[in-house]
Amino acid sequence: MASRFLTITSLLFSISINAQENNFIAANDGISSVLNHKSGISIETRIVIEKESGQVKIIFWQETENGFIFKNINWKGEIALLLDNGESLRLRDANLKGHMMQPGAYIAGMYVPDLYQRYSAYYLSPEERELLKKHSVVLVSYFLDDNYEKDMQHLEVNDSGHSLKAQLVAIGK
């Protein structure tokens, strides 16, 4: 699943970089975390930083092989990032979100299931970028626009390699 995720993410970012003037950070440079949903379905989340037309955004890509869990559901409203020093950042919803699905197929005699993805992106202020250069994200809290899952969702993150800091430094922000 991870290699398909990287392939489709890289393709989407490649389309973005060719369509707009920006500095590109490869998807495999981000943080990856797996959330086991209460239904037993695994959701992989990748967090990357991208510079686009002078603005810097943090993007949360989620992927699963079970489309029922996504049901055209997006992240909504503000998200909160808890940092390793106890501070938290609240990022405003910029309405940069969407879905995609890659149909399953038989490859070399083996069936590869459908792949469902959703993403949500948030702009980072200069102050937020400075905090992310100094401190790692340990928890992401967000809501979904889902009538059945109204509770806040939590995603534990391990950025011990300081990937987000490295991405911010690489794009010069």
Report on this structure.
The protein has one domain. Helices cover 20% and strands 45% of the residues. It is built from 3 helices and 12 strands; from the N terminus they run H-E-E-E-E-E-E-E-E-E-E-H-E-E-H. The strands form 3 sheets. Strands 1, 2, 3, 4, 7 and 10 form a 6-stranded antiparallel beta sheet that branches. Helix 2 (126-134) packs across helix 3. The two termini are 32 Å apart. 28% of the residues are buried.
Q: What's the helical proportion of residues?
A: 10-25%
Relative strand content: 35-45%
**What is the total domain count?**
1
Mean pLDDT: 79
Instruction: Please count the beta strands (DSSP E, at least 2 residues each).
Output: 12
What's the SSE pattern? Answer: HEEEEEEEEEEHEEH
Helix-strand category: alpha+beta
Short description:
This protein has 173 residues and is α+β, with helices and mostly antiparallel strands. It is 20% helix and 45% strand. The protein has one domain.
Features:
single chain, 173 residues, alpha+beta, six-stranded antiparallel beta sheet, four-stranded antiparallel beta sheet, globular, disordered N terminus
Give the secondary structure arrangement, pairings included:
Blueprint: H1 2-19, E1 22-23, E2 31-36, E3 42-52, E4 55-64, E5 75-83, E6 88-91, E7 96-102, E8 105-107, E9 110-112, E10 115-124, H2 126-134, E11 137-144, E12 153-156, H3 163-170
Helix pairs in contact: 2-3
